[in-house]
Specification:
The complex is a heterodimer.
Chain A lengths: L1 H4 L12 H21 L4 H18 L3 H6 L1 H18 L2 H6 L1 H24 L4 H12 L3 H10 L5 H31 L4 H33 L3 H21 L4 H14 L12 H17 L6 H25 L8 H10 L6 H12 L5 H29 L5
Chain B lengths: L11 E11 L9 H8 L8 E3 L5 E5 L6 H22 L1 E4 L18 H10 L1 H5 L4 E7 L3 H11 L3 H8 L4 E2 L2 E2 L7 H5 L4 E2 L7 H14 L9 E2 L1 E4 L4 E8 L4 H21 L7 H17 L4 E4 L4 E4 H11 L1 H7 L2 H13 L3 H12 L2 H12 L9
Parallel strand pairs in B: 8-9
Antiparallel strand pairs in B: 1-3, 1-4, 1-5, 2-3, 5-11, 6-7, 10-11, 12-13
Helix pairs in contact in B: 1-2, 2-9, 5-9, 6-10, 9-13, 11-13, 14-15
The chains are: A mainly alpha, B alpha+beta.
Chain lengths: 400, 377
């Protein structure tokens, strides 16, 4: 009866929609971010907490599908961060200062070796342990990017950290791709899949990235020399690259990272003007952290147990000791090298999605291992930004 | 004030304040501390010092009497510096000011003196992120130092125009060839020394100012030329840091030769007090227009072209230059004045061609380390 009389009234309760959900997530993220800063902690710490707080709610409310649809926002935010990170990858510096690539290889190798050995010792099958370890190699580009730029970090530790993160993100991706191919083999996928899938991922993503990286400076110089126009151009290029990579089922990570690195290392890079993503990007980053945080499923945490503790310790020790191995050759004082080691602690929330993808395709692929990884990610998402921020202050790159 | 320590007459030494930039967007960066810690192991460590912000360092030469020795010395320090900077991925550049940095982002190098200056001068301390070349010329006695300090005033516009290398500031073309000097002018004790007759009169003046608590040492006077009793020199502070060591050494040799000439002329010249009436005007003209400036000449009572004045004095210094071994330096500067090409013009031309101040700074870094890229000239 009421429906007939008042057709303009919505059903009760009114259905949730994306705008409403994203708005609420932004408020929660923004408030906790500001609170974290008040306690002299990085804002990212607050965003992640907000995500963890929202996560359990997500189980009760019908927000999961909405969060899935919001994935595009996460992809764009990640795309921008990786593009920027790629632009920090200075290949000439790696050539001029050998301690930099020694640190890079050592920290990735020790982290990978230590974590896989520890997991194998806990009785996990070698290939699965190796996949979990490979995922751990990557330092979170988004956390590092946001913490360093929020704090206006400047100096050797910051510059080196960004280079190391670009390299370890790349290595993590390559290794994971290869290992996933071996997982294919274990689950009796055809040989063709085993060889072709990683190859397709690698070459396809690189092709998109390098093409974007070459096209951008040329397009920029052909158009005009105005920073605002170049800004639009960069955002457009990032969106197109993200879109193409997604549509072709390639890696958004690798495509954008290589696009940034190409822009940085081609001779015409000065055609492209510097830009600042500014406040607009902040919205994307808050959503990125809250949404990835919300997707961490809490109930699985308890089952992780000691294996998770070992994972955390082995990863942290591997990264720090690897960087310290470069100290005798490094132009930095020991103390600064020690700080550099600490800056690599943040672990990528993106690992979560990667794990998710693998688990979707191969349900047999250890539920137990997934929960170990998940637990480790939660620990590093909270402890990582704090370690990074503290190391930057201790090194003097951030005003004490 | 310390007693004037008699120096070796006409010896010279230079201090160069240099910019530290990152190699990504070429903005100023925090690098002094890392650079100094790398250089601590080098035999020339004593020739590199921190400056007021963490994006600056100061290089100083040893004391020399000949231009070619000075140039060789600077080349040695530069080689050490550039090698260290390469490892740290830091760019080092000359130039009187960074073309597009934002002053508020600077951080003060943590020493007691710099913190005190920052406390006293507030935002001026960070806005003072400018880079100059200081030239020391040795004086046999205190009265000579006063004499030279006063006589030198006439040639301040010449030095400014030859060394000008700060046409851009905060991302804009200032229209000046040297915008740096106006960052110095805001300080209360800038300008020039009052017209005292000799060292005794100067000491009385200093004691009076110290009595008010206005100054505590000579360092508190930000004059364009000042006596430096503890070194036994006069210190000329109006030059922007040039874009390369060749120019820096040539300008130092020019100042040295000029002092030799002024000493030779001593007693035969008109009182320099007259020059102080037009001092500020001439200084402004030189900063604004460089070689194209018109300056007031109190001797002829006319307005004259600074460029032809420079060419004329270079001509007149010939005999002294031969005696001191600075002919090559003067020829180098004559070519510049003839072509009306100072470093400010070089930077402007580059910016007009590429439209990117970041690219200008990149070329400045290449030029400072002597690795000029093709097409940047």
């Amino acid at each position: 009866m009421a429906e007939v009389m008042m057709p303009f009234f919505p059903d009760f309760p009114p259905p949730l929609n994306e705008a409403l959900l994203l708005g609420v997530l932004l408020v929660i993220g923004g408030v906790l971010g500001a609170a974290a800063q008040r306690f002299r902690m990085p804002a990212v710490f607050g965003y992640v907490l907000a995500g963890f707080a929202v996560g359990p709610l997500a189980l009760d409310l019908p927000v999961r599908p909405l969060l899935e649809e919001a994935r595009v926002i996460v992809d764009i935010a990640v795309g921008l961060v990786l593009f920027e990170l790629g632009r920090r990858l200075d290949l000439q510096w790696l050539r001029r200062d050998p301690s930099l690539w020694i640190a890079s290889l050592a920290e990735s190798a020790l982290c990978f070796g230590g974590v896989s050995a520890a997991l194998i010792a806990f009785g996990f099958p070698p290939i699965q342990a190796a996949v979990a370890a490979a995922i751990g190699i990557a330092t979170s580009p988004a956390v590092v990017w946001l913490v360093t730029s929020d704090a206006h970090a400047q100096g050797q530790v910051t510059d080196r950290c960004l280079n190391l993160v670009a390299v370890n993100t790349l290595l993590a991706f390559l290794l994971t791709t290869m290992l996933v191919a071996m997982v294919h083999l274990e689950y009796r996928a055809g040989w063709l899949t085993v060889v072709l899938h990683p190859l397709y991922l690698l070459l396809g993503s690189l092709a998109i990235g390098i093409a974007t990286g070459f096209a951008l400076p040329y397009a920029a110089s052909a158009l005009t020399r105005r920073a605002d126009v170049h800004f639009v151009l960069i955002v457009a290029a990032v969106l197109i690259a993200v879109g193409l990579a997604t549509a072709l089922q390639l890696s958004v990570f690798l495509a954008l990272l290589s696009a940034g690195a190409t822009v940085r290392n081609v001779p015409r890079r000065f055609e492209l003007m510097e830009f600042d993503l500014g406040g607009g990007a902040r919205v994307l980053y808050i959503l990125l952290f809250v949404i990835t945080g919300a997707q961490a499923a809490w109930p699985e945490l308890q089952t992780a147990g000691w294996a998770a503790v070992i994972y955390v310790l082995a990863r942290a020790a591997g990264k720090w000791l690897g960087v310290m191995a470069s100290a005798p050759l490094s132009p930095l004082p020991w103390r600064q090298t020690a700080c550099l080691g600490l800056t690599l602690m943040p672990m990528s929330g993106m690992a979560l999605l990667l794990m998710h993808d693998i688990a979707m395709r191969y349900p047999q692929f250890g539920q137990e291992l997934a929960s170990v990884l998940l637990a480790a990610i939660v620990v590093f998402e909270l402890a990582g930004p704090l370690a990074l921020h503290w190391a930057l202050r201790l090194s003097g790159d951030v005003k004490p | 004030m310390p007693a004037f320590k008699a120096g070796r007459a006409l010896s010279m030494g230079v201090e160069l304040e240099l910019q530290l930039v990152n190699l990504r967007d070429f903005d100023l960066t925090r690098g002094a501390e890392s650079l100094l810690s790398v250089l601590a192991r080098s035999p020339r460590a004593n020739n590199v010092k921190p400056e007021i912000t963490e994006s600056m360092i100061e290089v100083n030469s040893e004391v020399h009497t000949r231009h070619d020795d000075l140039l060789r010395d600077l080349a040695e320090v530069r080689a050490e510096l550039c090698a260290a900077a390469e490892k740290l991925n830091i760019g080092i550049a000359g130039g009187g000011a960074h073309p597009f940095h934002h002053w508020a982002q600077r951080r003060i190098f943590p020493t007691e003196r710099f913190s005190a200056l920052s406390e006293l001068y507030g935002y001026l301390a960070k806005q003072f992120t400018v880079f100059g070349q200081h030239i020391h010329i040795g004086c046999a006695g205190a009265d000579e130092a006063i004499h030279l300090t006063r006589q030198m005033a006439r040639f301040i516009p010449h030095l400014i125009a030859l060394a000008a290398a700060s046409p851009f500031s905060q991302g804009e073309d200032t229209a000046f060839d040297s915008s740096r000097l106006h960052a110095v002018s805001v300080f209360p004790l800038s300008g020039h020394m009052p017209p005292v007759a000799d060292w005794q009169a100067f000491t009385r003046y200093f004691d009076r100012m110290a009595g008010f608590g206005i100054v505590r040492s000579m360092k508190d006077f930000y004059w364009d030329v000042r006596p430096k009793p503890e070194f036994g020199t006069i210190e000329i502070r109006v030059c922007d840091t040039p874009l390369d060591i060749e120019t820096a050494a040539a300008i130092a040799a020019f100042a040295q030769t000029l002092c030799a000439w002024l000493e030779d002329q001593r007693g035969t010249q008109e009182d320099a007090a007259e020059d102080s009436n037009v001092y500020d005007y001439n200084r402004f003209q030189a900063c604004r227009f460089g070689f194209a400036a018109q300056i007031a000449d109190v001797r002829s009572g006319r307005s004259v072209s600074l460029r032809s004045e420079i060419l004329a004095i270079l001509e007149r210094l010939g005999a002294c230059a031969e005696r001191l071994g600075s002919e090559r330096a003067l020829a180098f500067l004559r070519a510049r004045a003839t072509a009306e090409l100072n470093d400010a013009q070089w930077m402007r031309t580059l910016n007009a061609r590429n439209g990117s101040l970041a690219d200008v700074v990149r070329a400045m870094c290449e030029r400072w380390c002597g690795r000029e890229s093709p097409g940047s000239r």
